[in-house]
Amino acid sequence: MAEKKFRAGLYAVISGILIAAVLTGLTLFAYTTRYTAFKPEKVAQFYVDTVIQTGDGYNAYKNTVLAQNKKLKYGDFIRRTDMVVFLNDGDDVKKADFVGTGSAEEQKAIDEVYNRMYEYYCTLVNEVGWDDYETFFMSYFTKLKEVRHEVYGDDYLDYEYMFGALEANVATYGESLTGAEEMLAADGKTVLREAFEGKYQKTFGKDYKFITEVKSCEELGADEVKTYVEGFKERIKPTATCGEAKADIFKLVDETEGKKKKTPKSDMIDAYSKLDCSDSISGVAKVECEVHLEDGKLVAIQELYVVKIGKSWYVDNTNLDTTGLYLAE
Predict the structure, then answer these.
(1) pTM of the model
(2) Which residues, 6 or more positions from 175, have their beta carbon under 8 angstroms from its beta carbon?
(3) H-helix or E-strand containing 224?
């Protein structure tokens, strides 16, 4: 998939708009998720629709067991398990001289990093896929560290920069599928981005529309739930118990500086261990969703299981294959 490049001198303006759009989308996403979580069919439908509309496997995880623990938000999970091993934001870490200046040089550097990472992001979507989020995150941030060093000439990385690059790539990937309208600057004349057709428009027509419907939703009986939970526990165990070994590989340690405690190792172990929610699962439902165009033409079929924890339902991402929802491969 060809990368969509922005005009370097105007990148700061565009990135601000993109980030605002992403944040708005995440707010709406969180609001919608809150009120769909009480019905298994709604959770399943929303998950499938999130992926099929813009290829957004990243945000789709907010509907899964990966985000079921109320005390550990999805973003915090990513920070504690993947970003932390690349974090290098101390006062003693030198930044490139142009960082924070808002200069054309800085805008050009951001532009180059984001565009190079976008090309790599597309590769990961096609070759790894979001079903394997562990490999996806680790591969992405490893590459980001490398590209940042090559472009900036420094080794500085903080959470904001890592999230900024990833979420911009997620948004750009979505637009590569749906297409985008022309974007103008505040003067109403300067073109920040030209309009372009997306992959879906070229494949399904300019006015295409995907409709996601639940075709069946079957809640399992008590014995079936028990068997399913046992299977879930076995599937999640390798990941839920990997925290200490991974922390040791990356030499993470807990330490105290004066009255301030830093616990990256304990945080990583805790984050992974919270994935095993098997003891909290009280219900399981098997759901089948179909995606079709307005004329009824079938685009995709997705089977998934959702589990009940407390009063909410979550997609079981340990028992899921979404490759059929990525139509741009």
Answers:
(1) 0.88
(2) 4, 54, 198
(3) helix 222-240
